[in-house]
């Protein structure tokens, strides 16, 4: 058996599509009207369609459970933050924060109150630390990533 993709239920497919395509720059893989699959292998499905498929009352579908998030990575987190500020109505969970391993992330809700996390790629973290003058050993310790991975990101010969 193979896991295919997460599917999130949305109230208005057009509002959600605009958010995912314009704010998060997601590209459509398949468009079935009530269901849209993105190249990142997650799907949006219209609430009424989903309720009908599983034979439940739409009112029993709850949003903002805070028990699930969609995680995205961005190489240029500063540029993304500037773009995000241009979008009015973003409901932030927290502003940019840095985890102990050095990755900077921001979390906010999509239009249906599903948690979205956008994090700096670990490759970007490693390059940032290196450009800030950290040694390879310091980067390995701080990021908790294997030495081989850090060297590969920095294009060092593995010895």
TrEMBL record:
Molecular function GO terms recorded: lyase activity
Limits of the VOC domain: 2-121
InterPro entries the record matches: Glyas_Bleomycin-R_OHBP_Dase, Glyoxalase-like_dom, VOC_core
Protein name (record): Lactoylglutation lyase
Record-linked Pfam families: Glyoxalase_2
PROSITE patterns registered for this protein in UniProt: VOC (PS51819)
Alphabetic keyword roster: Lyase
Claim: Lyase is one of the keywords in the record: yes
